[in-house]
């Protein structure tokens, strides 16, 4: 798998969704893409990648100084709070990623908080799907701060199916009063929410 990818230096889009990929397969994937400087889209959703595999993917693809990866889909994997820490760290410094889908994982409130803290210094991410991750008040507070930062360029944000309460949604509404970039916010199916 990795050897075949090494021979192609011009792959711009790669989808390996639903392939039972685990952390070891993630390492092979990165080994195969280590010299690729053209990849802009990667979909590894619906696999078995944990925090360790995610860390390998992020380090191999987004920490490279010449990274142009703009879309990353890691939805429906086994990513927990430590993965949120890795994502937050990358978001602080990466300047290529514009679309991140991490829905249907298990970040929890702490992992979500780390992702949103990474957005405090990020000026490139415009789309974030973080639905179904058990986010609660700590994550919502970190997001509210991120939404008030001048550098925040988020346009589309999906927070659906988490554990946000009415107060969390109200605080996000207050943060959005002076934010002119968010055009779509989905907060359906949260705690104490009718819609």
Summarize the structure.
With 195 residues, this protein is α/β, with parallel strands linked by helices. It has helices spanning 2-6, 23-33, 51-62, 81-93, 108-118, 137-147, 166-176, and strands at 13-15, 41-43, 71-73, 99-101, 127-129, 156-158, 184-186.
Q: Could you characterize the architecture of this molecule?
A:
The protein has seven helices and seven strands, in the order αβαβαβαβαβαβαβ. The chain is globular. It has a single domain (2-186), classed as Ribonuclease Inhibitor (Leucine-rich repeat, LRR (right-handed beta-alpha superhelix), Alpha-Beta Horseshoe). By secondary structure, it is of the alpha/beta class. Keywords: Repeat. It holds the Pfam family LRR_6.
Topology:
Elements: H1 2-6, E1 13-15, H2 23-33, E2 41-43, H3 51-62, E3 71-73, H4 81-93, E4 99-101, H5 108-118, E5 127-129, H6 137-147, E6 156-158, H7 166-176, E7 184-186
Parallel strand pairs: 1-2, 2-3, 3-4, 4-5, 5-6, 6-7
Helix pairs in contact: 2-3, 3-4, 4-5, 5-6, 6-7
Helix content: 25-40%
CATH topology: Leucine-rich repeat, LRR (right-handed beta-alpha superhelix)
- Sheet with most strands: strand arrangement: 1-2-3-4-5-6-7
Distance between the termini: 44 Å
What percent strand?
A: 5-15%
Tally the beta strands. Answer: 7
Summing up helix and strand content along with how strands pair, one would put the structural category as alpha/beta
CATH class: Alpha Beta
Keywords: Repeat
Pfam family, one: LRR_6
